[in-house]
Amino acid sequence: MSIKRVGVIGGGQLAWMMAMAAKSLGIRLVVQTPNVTDPAVCLAAETVFAAIDDGVATEQIASRCDVITFENEFINLDALKSLANRGICFYPRLESLAPLLDKYDQRCYFDRIGLPQPEFISLEGEVGQQELKSLGSDRTPINLSQLEFPLVLKARRQGYDGKGTFIIKDSHSLQEIWNQLDNQPVVLEEFIPFERELAVMAARSVDGQVVVYPVVETQQEEQVCRRVIAPAQISPDTVAEVNAIAKTLLTSLDVVGVFGIELFLTSNHKVLVNEVSPRTHNSGHYTIDACQTSQFEQQLRAVVGLPLGSPQMHCPSAVMVNLLGYESSQDDYQQKRQTLASLPGAFVHWYGKTQSRPGRKLAHVTVLSDGNSVQEVIDKVESVWYG
Predict the structure, then answer these.
(1) What's residue 323's pLDDT?
(2) Averaged over 315-334, what is the pLDDT?
(3) Which helix (H) or strand (E) holds 202?
């Protein structure tokens, strides 16, 4: 008999969309989240109100569920290990998450399994101001004067939606930004002058089956995803390379669940891995309306042991546009939402957040199309929302 009770650590819009998928599968979802206003609270069968890194609260959830999964990666692995050692089931497994929660550890892991990626080094607080310490397997310490700018600086933990990521143009800016981060350990990465950014969602089942969704193009502004175009207009060889990367990664990690993989495509058609998110992801939101199985249903199928669903699109093309806050207000933007919903092929997903502020993800809209009017669709959606 399949597991029918799933705990989710985190109660934001990803858990909210998972909760909608849970209802269609007859799965009872129990959510751990700190805020009564979080989107998933209204749909969860039960909610434990506590910080997402509160291990005691997670133990409460475990007593009511058969398996626990995650909405985000901001978790306390140490607190959860004691629960796992007592037989509480986490999917993805904690061992699968461990190499990915720190961005430097993530880069080192990609190195070990041979995934193509930008060059990277670590910058740590105990190192002298003029020297960068590199801890990679075949890297040696270098001097600041040896660096080629621009570079990308990333905080090793807690970064998302552009937070903790900086484009560094010179050594002065490097010192200034690093000081602003209190000289916490960071990763410095080679800046890639990419032709476009790609992403792909992939899922792996308990018995090792891997399914990969269509490769999409993502368009970022200030390190925040603004748009997703599915499928990406790329060569079959590039699609095959991305699919191989996804399968290698999920199999190597022994993953159970859905992962989002972000990549760069260079002007000479080289694919490089940017980051991996061990969960459902913004770049996969289009799957709710455009694919036979959404990423959220797929996540639940994987963790409860149901057969994975088909990741194929049932339409030629889809465009997903994030609707970001552009002001501080309490407005629910009902009129704009109605206008967007009236567009041909449009599906509006409003996250139910009670407060808008600049840059906050409030909703997304997916428009199914014949693939011939992608830019026209984007322009129309954004003119309604931001106009």
Answers:
(1) 97
(2) 95
(3) strand 196-204
From residue 147, how far is each of 92, 120, 150, 189 by CA, in Å? 37, 11, 9, 10
How many Cα atoms within 13 Å fall on the side-chain side of residue 337?
13
CA atoms within 13 A on the CB side of 54: 15
Which residues 6+ apart lie within 8 Å of 386 measured at CB? 326
196-204 and 216-221 strand pairing: antiparallel
Residue with the bigger pLDDT between 145 and 291: it is 291
**In terms of C-beta density within 10 A (0-12 exposed, 13-18 middle, 19 or more buried), how is residue 270 classed?**
middle
Residue 375 contacts residue 345 (beta carbons within 8 Å): no
| pLDDT band at residue 132 under the 50/70/90 scheme | low
Residue type, 284: G
Give the pLDDT band of residue 124 (cuts 50, 70, 90). confident
Instruction: Sort strands 5-9 and 151-155 into parallel, antiparallel or unpaired.
Output: unpaired
Q: Which residues pair with 121 in a beta bridge?
A: 188
CA distance linking residue 103 with residue 105, whole number of Å: 5
Q: What is the mean pLDDT of residues 215-221?
A: 96
Give the H/E segment covering residue 237. helix 236-253
Strand, helix or coil at 69? strand
For the cut 70, the answer to whether the pLDDT of residue 66 exceeds it is yes
CB 197 within 8 A of CB 265: yes
